[in-house]
Amino acid sequence: MPTLSGFEPQHSQRLAALRAYAILDTPPEREFDEIAEMAAQACGTPMAHINFIDADRQWIKAAFGHPPRQMPLDFGFCTEAMREDGVLVLPDLAAVPESAANPLVTGEPHLRFYAGVPLVTPDGWAIGTLCVLDREPRTLSDQQIFILKALARTVMTQLDSRCAEAALRRNEERYRSLFAFIDAGFCLVEMTFADGDRAVDYRFLEVNPAFERQTGLRDVIGRSMRDLVPGHEQHWFDLYGRVALTGEPIRFEQAAEALGRWYDVHAYRVDGPARNRVAVLFNDITERRRNELTLQAREAELRLVADAMPVLIAFIDRSLVYQFANAAYETWTGQSAADVVGRTVQELLGPEAFEARRPAIEQALAGHEVRHEWVWTFPDREVRTADTRYLPRRDAAGRVDGFYVFAHDVSERKRIEALLQTRAERLEAQVAAQTRDRDRVWTLSPVLKLVSDRDGRVHSVNPSWSRALGWSEAETLGRPALDFVAPTEREAAHAALRPLCADRRVEDVELSCRTQAGDRRRVLWTVVPEDGLFYGFGRDITEQRQAEEALRQSQKLEAIGQLTGGVAHDFNNLLTIIRSSVEFLRRPDLAEERRRRYLDAVSDTVDRAAKLTGQLLAFARRQALKPQVFDIGARLRSIADMLDSVTGARIRVAIELPDAPRFVRADESQFETALINMAVNARDAMDGEGGLTLRLEGDRPMPPIRGHAGARGPFVAVRVVDTGAGIPAADLGRIFEPFFTTKEIGKGTGLGLSQVIGFAKQSGGDIDVASAVGGGTTFTLYLPQVEASAASVDDGRDDRRDAEPQRSLCILVVEDNLGVGRFCTQILEDLGHAPIWAKSAEEALAELARTPDRFDVIFSDVVMPGMGGFALARQLQGSRPDLPVVLTSGYSHVLATDDTHGFALVRKPYSAQQLAQVLYEAAKRRGRPGAGASRPAAGEPAADARARD
Fold first, then answer.
1. What is the three-state SS of 9-38?
2. What's the rounded Cα separation, in Å, for the pair 187 and 205?
3. Any idea what DSSP says for residue 593?
4. 392-416: average pLDDT
5. Which residues of 37-68 are buried (b: 16+ CB within 10 A; e: fewer)?
6. pLDDT category of residue 584 using cuts at 50, 70 and 90
7. CA distances (Å), 376 to each of 353, 358, 387, in order?
8. Which of 82, 226, 356, 649 would bridge 126 by S-S if both were Cys, CB 3.0 to 4.6 A apart?
9. Residue 580: which pLDDT band, with cuts at 50, 70 and 90?
10. SS3 sequence, 394-445?
């Protein structure tokens, strides 16, 4: 222990002892102020201090009668007092030279008396003083000295108490923090007993925040468990009651079924046996227990699976002792799995078998997987072969702690392998023979064979490829297969072969293939996708197609012969009527009624002849159509209304139309004729009784039909579906031929469907047919779909116009036929016009050059030697746009293929009234902008609708 005589202000341990009390620079405290006042009163002095001596200062904690709180060490007399064992008393400071010069003596507070007692720690370190002061010299009695020493001890006791309280507060804060933030639940309960020592309930005195998370219970302080959870199990009360009575702590895991949880619990008694209080620290282990139960169930399931497998399964530790064995061990060794576990490998297998397996076991324990086949002798003495695997197992540190054993009886597999080997050798011989046969088929087959990858590049071809096309194998391999297709057909070939990309086979694709000599051969291909390659098989049908073409030419000649005979027969009939009527009209005594009858007969016969000519032109696809945009759905509806009169009452006519209108640009009259022709054919096929459906579909592509390429469209599809007898397959290819009919003689001309296909082709579409004998027939007419035009919006307008007075016109007639020219000029003269006849387009141009302003309108034939009517009209359109041109023709391939010339057209034969009306309408527009391209009003019966520019 240090001595006071050796007091050193800067001593580190003394300073550490001082700072341990944490007293320096603290605010005044009543306890210390009262001790200073008591010291002054007890000693009868006006002043008293409690001082603490730091390394370089004297700090006053409490002062009575003197306010300063801090001063240098060389002021005052406390450092001298701290070197004394007892009380230092200085009766008269002025009488001693050393103290007389002290600033506290010479100045305020002018001290003359000092008495001080050191404040000493339990370890003997002087840290301060309790001193009394006076301005007058004096001394202290023994009783006053005793009291001063006692008060000094009281100061130290107060300091020690203060430190203890601070430490207690810190510990309490530390434990409170731990109490609040630990994850474990905590509660302090007070047990309730009945019948002496039987615990029946407990009341919660204190819980931590984790209590609610762990139990789900709220607001439990002061409440009993029976009140909170009435169904809480009694064994919980019994366990806590035993702890409260015996004081023995307990730890256990148990389910609280009323709370639906499992807990890990540590309970111990607190506050002595009389208060029956138990502190409980617990954790919710529900999830862990659930996982454990799941793991146990899984282990049981795995054990069940392992026992059910015919494979030998075991685990052997590094001591070569069995730790696990499945039920198969009983079959293999005659011992149950329970008897095997705990035994060594050598004990179970015997020394000889163990030595045979020792190298493999050592490899497994070294961390290597081992697989080997060993011979096993089963309990029934049957020797079998086992395919055995040793798999090392590693612990958490990565060390091998044993190995698994998997043994599978492969005796039957070995027998089958031997059998399969024998069969495989036999099969290899058969495959070799089949390969030779396949190679011969590949080499000698007349079929062209080609193998390509999915990008179309050729991998191999057979000799027939080279024989047929002349391309050698070297010239073919590696090139795209489409390189050998004629350029004009490559796009169609690409479209036809597209299903291959979806792994669908393609059959009967006919293509023109280029030969090495530059010729073309027609090849019919079937292509099959297989194993990422395309296998193509082609049949050269060039000669077949040539023969078919020759046959078609022969059939055409036969058809022309039939056509010629039919036309001659029909026209002879018509001419007979006309000639007979004219002969009667020449009689002067013919009655007026009979004259009108013969004139009507001649007029009707001319109309029939014009209709026959129109059918012939439609068949030849040379008819001059009058295309216009119309709502095909509305037209179908109106046609359906009139079909009842055509088909008869016993045929039910139904119509199916889309919600939105669909528009086409075609000859409306020819469309109606085509639809009626198909309806009449359907009526005859149903023998006058059945169902006829007209169905319209829009926005459709046109599929390939009869070998012709399809088109994306859009197209409208008009389907005419009947329930008739159907068309035999042999007749399907001929039904569109002219004069082909299956009807009795006199009941059909065979031109109806010819007109339909002619109209469809000429309108940019086609017609398809599907039929089965006994299953009815469906004709599908495809026509190009267009947008609605302004002219087609109002279908109900009234096109009739009041007759207007017509003035005399000067008309330049251009006609190369003498008879027609004379007849035309005579008609025009009879109508009051002044015609000038030019026999050629060149003559007409010369006449116009000679008298440019003479003529009101030009009326020209289309087909003439030299310059034709269209060429003349085009030239005049450029040089004389104000001069209207009207064309006329009974037939022209130009009119049939192009209806967009922009000139008015009068079809032959025409009447005088029709001609007069068209010429007057054309002349009336003279002088208007674009008069040369004007159009007669829709609905005029005299002329075709004018085409749009």
1. CCCHHHHHHHHHCCCCCCCCCHHHHHHHHH
2. 7
3. H
4. 89
5. ebbbebbebebbbbbbbbeeebbbbbbbbbee
6. low
7. 9, 16, 10
8. 82
9. low
10. ECCCCCEEEEEEEEEECHHHHHHHHHHHHHHHHHHHHHHHHHHHHHHHHHHC
Quote the CA–CA distance of 342 and 345 in Å, as a whole number: 10
d(CA 279, CA 206): 9
C-alpha–C-alpha distance, residues 212 and 207, integer Å:
9
pLDDT at 791: 45
Pairing of strands 506-514, 383-394: unpaired
217-276: pLDDT as tens digits: 999 999 999 999 999 999 999 999 999 999 999 999 999 999 999 999 999 999 888 889
Q: Judge contact between 282 and 288, C-beta under 8 A.
A: no
- What is the C-alpha to C-alpha distance for residues 654 and 632, in angstroms, rounded to an integer? 16
pTM of the predicted protein model: 0.33
pLDDT of residue 801: 44
For residues 523 and 510, the answer to whether their CB atoms sit within 8 Å is yes
Backbone angles phi, psi at 531, to 5 degrees: 55, 40
Euclidean distance between CA atoms 625 and 672, whole angstroms:
13
Note if the bond before 941 is cis, omega within 30 degrees: no
Cα–Cα distance for residue pair 419/413, rounded to 1 Å: 10
- Backbone conformation region of residue 200, classed left if phi is above 0, alpha if psi is from -120 to 50, else beta: alpha
Residues, the chain, total? 949
Which residues are 256's β-sheet partners?
A: 261
Q: Supply the Cα-derived Rg of the chain in whole angstroms.
A: 63
Query: Beta partners for 511?
Result: 523
Positive or negative, the Cα torsion across 473, 475, 479, 484?
negative
Q: DSSP state, 946?
A: P
SS3 624: coil
Buried b (16+ CB within 10 A) or exposed e, 885-906: bbbbbbbbebbbeebebbbbbb
Ramachandran region, residue 311 (left: φ > 0; alpha: ψ -120 to 50; beta: rest): beta
Question: What is d(CA 703, CA 514) in angstroms, rounded to the nearest whole number?
Answer: 27
Q: 788-831: per-residue pLDDT in tens?
A: 764 444 444 444 444 444 568 899 999 988 878 888 888 888 88
Question: How far from each other are the two terminal CA atoms of the chain, in whole angstroms?
Answer: 130
- Helix, strand, coil percentages (3-state) for the chain, rounded to 5, are 45, 25, 30
Contact 59, 70 (CB under 8 A): yes
Rounded Cα distance between 871 and 850, Å, is 20
The DSSP output letter for 501 is: G
Q: Coil, strand, or helix at residue 540?
A: strand
Strand partners, 1: none
Q: How far is CA 635 from CA 642, 658, 795, in A?
A: 11, 13, 10
Q: How large is the greatest C-alpha to C-alpha distance in the chain, in angstroms?
A: 195
Q: Which two tokens stand for residue 193?
A: 């007993």
Percent of the chain with pLDDT over 90: 28
Q: Which residues of 350-383 are buried (b: 16+ CB within 10 A; e: fewer)?
A: eeebbeebeebbebbbeeeebeeeeebeeeeeee
Mean pLDDT of 502-506: 90
Place of tokens 């007409």: 844
| Average pLDDT score over the chain | 82
